[in-house]
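Reviewers of the previous submission asked for a worked example of the structure-prediction workflow described in the proposal, so we include one complete record here. The input consisted solely of the amino acid sequence. No template or homolog information was supplied to the procedure at any stage.
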Amino acid sequence: MCRTLLDASVAGDFAVFKRVCEGKGDANMRMVASDPSTEETFRRASAVIAPPCKGGYELVPLGSLLQRGHTVHLWRLKPSSGDDEFLVRLTLKNKRLAGFFFQ
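From that input alone, the workflow returned the following C-alpha coordinates.
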Protein backbone atom coordinates (compact mmCIF):
# COMPACT_ATOMS: atom_id res chain seq x y z
CA MET A 1 0.00 0.00 0.00
CA CYS A 2 2.84 2.38 0.84
CA ARG A 3 4.58 1.81 -2.47
CA THR A 4 1.32 2.28 -4.41
CA LEU A 5 0.62 5.59 -2.65
CA LEU A 6 4.21 6.69 -3.10
CA ASP A 7 4.31 5.71 -6.78
CA ALA A 8 1.06 7.65 -7.32
CA SER A 9 2.60 10.66 -5.59
CA VAL A 10 5.77 10.50 -7.71
CA ALA A 11 3.70 10.13 -10.90
CA GLY A 12 1.26 12.87 -9.87
CA ASP A 13 -1.59 10.38 -10.33
CA PHE A 14 -4.34 11.56 -8.00
CA ALA A 15 -6.82 9.02 -9.39
CA VAL A 16 -4.71 6.10 -8.10
CA PHE A 17 -4.06 7.85 -4.80
CA LYS A 18 -7.77 8.51 -4.32
CA ARG A 19 -8.72 4.95 -5.31
CA VAL A 20 -6.43 3.52 -2.60
CA CYS A 21 -7.76 5.95 0.01
CA GLU A 22 -11.35 5.13 -0.87
CA GLY A 23 -10.84 1.38 -1.17
CA LYS A 24 -8.49 0.72 1.74
CA GLY A 25 -9.03 3.77 3.94
CA ASP A 26 -10.91 4.16 7.16
CA ALA A 27 -13.97 6.45 7.29
CA ASN A 28 -11.81 9.55 7.77
CA MET A 29 -9.50 8.73 4.84
CA ARG A 30 -12.51 8.11 2.59
CA MET A 31 -13.94 11.48 3.61
CA VAL A 32 -10.60 13.23 3.04
CA ALA A 33 -10.22 11.59 -0.40
CA SER A 34 -13.59 12.98 -1.48
CA ASP A 35 -12.89 16.53 -0.25
CA PRO A 36 -12.31 18.85 -3.25
CA SER A 37 -9.28 20.48 -1.58
CA THR A 38 -7.46 17.14 -1.26
CA GLU A 39 -6.50 17.04 -4.93
CA GLU A 40 -4.73 20.40 -4.67
CA THR A 41 -2.94 19.28 -1.50
CA PHE A 42 -1.90 16.10 -3.32
CA ARG A 43 -0.57 18.16 -6.26
CA ARG A 44 1.55 20.34 -3.96
CA ALA A 45 2.95 17.27 -2.16
CA SER A 46 3.61 15.53 -5.47
CA ALA A 47 5.56 18.58 -6.67
CA VAL A 48 7.92 18.10 -3.71
CA ILE A 49 8.40 14.34 -3.93
CA ALA A 50 8.33 13.80 -7.71
CA PRO A 51 11.49 15.62 -8.89
CA PRO A 52 14.01 13.78 -6.71
CA CYS A 53 12.24 10.41 -7.13
CA LYS A 54 11.47 10.43 -10.88
CA GLY A 55 14.60 8.37 -11.60
CA GLY A 56 13.67 5.84 -8.96
CA TYR A 57 13.99 5.42 -5.24
CA GLU A 58 14.71 2.94 -2.50
CA LEU A 59 12.24 2.43 0.33
CA VAL A 60 14.01 1.23 3.49
CA PRO A 61 11.82 -0.03 6.36
CA LEU A 62 12.60 1.58 9.70
CA GLY A 63 10.07 -0.33 11.79
CA SER A 64 6.66 0.28 13.24
CA LEU A 65 5.15 1.50 16.46
CA LEU A 66 1.80 1.69 18.19
CA GLN A 67 0.18 5.06 18.85
CA ARG A 68 -3.35 5.45 20.23
CA GLY A 69 -4.57 2.20 18.75
CA HIS A 70 -2.91 2.84 15.38
CA THR A 71 0.00 0.94 13.85
CA VAL A 72 2.47 3.40 12.36
CA HIS A 73 4.92 2.09 9.76
CA LEU A 74 8.01 4.16 9.00
CA TRP A 75 10.34 4.07 5.98
CA ARG A 76 13.37 5.99 4.79
CA LEU A 77 12.84 7.12 1.21
CA LYS A 78 16.15 7.39 -0.63
CA PRO A 79 15.82 9.01 -4.08
CA SER A 80 18.18 7.66 -6.74
CA SER A 81 19.13 11.24 -7.54
CA GLY A 82 21.05 11.42 -4.26
CA ASP A 83 18.97 14.38 -3.10
CA ASP A 84 17.66 14.70 0.44
CA GLU A 85 16.00 11.68 1.96
CA PHE A 86 12.43 11.64 3.24
CA LEU A 87 10.64 9.98 6.13
CA VAL A 88 7.49 8.16 5.02
CA ARG A 89 4.77 7.36 7.52
CA LEU A 90 1.81 5.09 6.81
CA THR A 91 -0.77 4.70 9.58
CA LEU A 92 -3.24 1.83 9.86
CA LYS A 93 -6.12 1.25 12.23
CA ASN A 94 -7.82 -2.13 12.13
CA LYS A 95 -5.89 -2.84 8.90
CA ARG A 96 -7.46 0.23 7.23
CA LEU A 97 -5.43 3.18 5.95
CA ALA A 98 -5.68 6.02 8.47
CA GLY A 99 -2.87 8.28 7.23
CA PHE A 100 -0.04 8.68 4.74
CA PHE A 101 2.60 11.37 5.06
CA PHE A 102 6.14 12.09 4.04
CA GLN A 103 8.51 14.75 5.26
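The chain has a mean pLDDT of 94. We consider this example representative of the routine output the project will generate in years two and three.
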